[in-house]
Amino acid sequence: SALSSFDRAADWADLIRYLQRLNDVLKRHENAGPVIPESSLLGKRLAQCLDSSFQSGVHLKALETYRNVFTRLGPKELRKSLFIYSSGLFPLLSNSSTPVKRDLLSLYEEYFLPVGPDLRNVLDGLVLALLPGLEDETSEFYSIVLKLLADLQSIVADDIRFSVSIWRALLLAPNRIPVLAFLNHCYRKETVPLPQPEILAPAIAAALTEKDSLVQRNVLDFLINYVPPDSHHLGKLRAQVVTKAILSISRNDVSLKKRVYAWLCGPEEDNWKSYFR
User: Fold this and answer.
1) Rounded distance between C-alpha atoms, residue 155 and residue 116, angstroms
2) How do residues 79-120 score in pLDDT, each as one tens digit?
3) Residues 219, 259: contact at Cβ < 8 Å?
4) Integer-rounded Cα radius of gyration of the chain
């Protein structure tokens, strides 16, 4: 079958050839209805072709195949198979070329958003997948990703659930900078609420222990602006966050010390800046 041939692939050129063969099979049977035989194996093969070690030509051909599959399934059937096809797509944005990013974001807009509220089933993964697109504010993808995230929030129609997904992304993301950028964007515009302490506190604590001091500075800025140390949003986990904040000054970074002091004592505290002069 078209799927079994992938086992014999020796290089990326073989993968492109096998993907084209698979596309031909899909087109020959495009009137067979919204059913994909061996869908789990198909999802596995497509994910295999999105490995970051492959050239962008393989990625683009694989995305073409995803489009053919999603077109055949339609939103009603795709919602039942999201978990099969998402595993390969979600890691791609942060490890791909510009043409691949462009095609991938278009695919999310054209095929994922129409699935509707059932996107809640993959919300954590989809938010985590989109956030790397916010790493560079000057990128052509920055505004596209912001709009996708805004549309996603509107579609799932559950602001608390959406907020939880963002904070879980802060906890899990290998690069926390774009997550913090989006958090600041959201809370500056007051578009999402803060989640319960069990979600909020561990994510903040993880960011405060980050090796990258830029992440630590950004999360402390967020705390100063939106989450004072006596906030009820920290609940019984307040001590955990305060402890991590205090420990962050062990790096002997003056900017971190200033931010920790401003958070604990308040930015308007008399002469607090002179404390570090």
Assistant:
1) 6
2) 999 999 999 999 999 989 999 999 999 999 999 999 999 999
3) no
4) 22
pLDDT digits (tens, 9 = 90+) for 137-196: 999 999 999 999 999 999 999 999 999 999 999 999 999 999 999 999 999 999 999 999
Contact criterion met (CB below 8 Å) for 133 and 139:
yes
- 245, 263 Cβ separation under 8 angstroms: yes
Distances (CA, A) of 153 to 9, 78, 129: 40, 19, 15
176: nearest Cα among 238, 234, 220: 220
Tell me the two tokens of residue 159.
Answer: 């602001």
3-state SS track over 205-253: HHHHCCCCHHHHHHHHHHHHHHCCCCCCCCHHHHHHHHHHHHHHHHHCC
Question: What is the torsional sign of CA 9, 10, 11, 14?
Answer: negative
Q: Is 44 exposed, middle or buried (0-12, 13-18, 19+ CB in 10 A)?
A: middle
CB 23 within 8 A of CB 68: yes
Mean pLDDT (the chain, rounded): 92
For the CA atoms of 103, 106, 107, 112, the dihedral, rounded to the nearest 10 degrees, stands at 160
